[in-house]
Amino acid sequence: MIDHSYIITFFATCFILPLGVIFFCYGKLLRKLKKVSHGRLATARKPERQVTRMVVMMIVAFMVGWTPYAAFSILVTACPTIHIDPRMAAIPAFFSKTAAVYNPVIYVFMNKQVTES
After folding, report:
1. pTM of the model
2. For the domain 2-115, what is the CATH code?
């Protein structure tokens, strides 16, 4: 029972809570950006589209990194008798560990201010 509590707490605090914070913060950013660029010419809206693309990529990267691990944790919690090869169990853990690298890489490659320097 203690293992289940730990996994459920881990799922909530390391997946659901950060995902909620990401959606909330990026949503506010995009609303503010849209408000600032409202009424501008189409060429002036290009930065808004670039930022929107970058935000979507960061959300997708978070989901790619953490969804397999979260799903695996919930599966193991829901079906404790399931037998999974340890090598297969390591794959979701690998993705979750690499998630810390995705945001800086996406930011560097999608931000012209960084690449032009």
Report:
1. 0.79
2. 1.20.1070.10
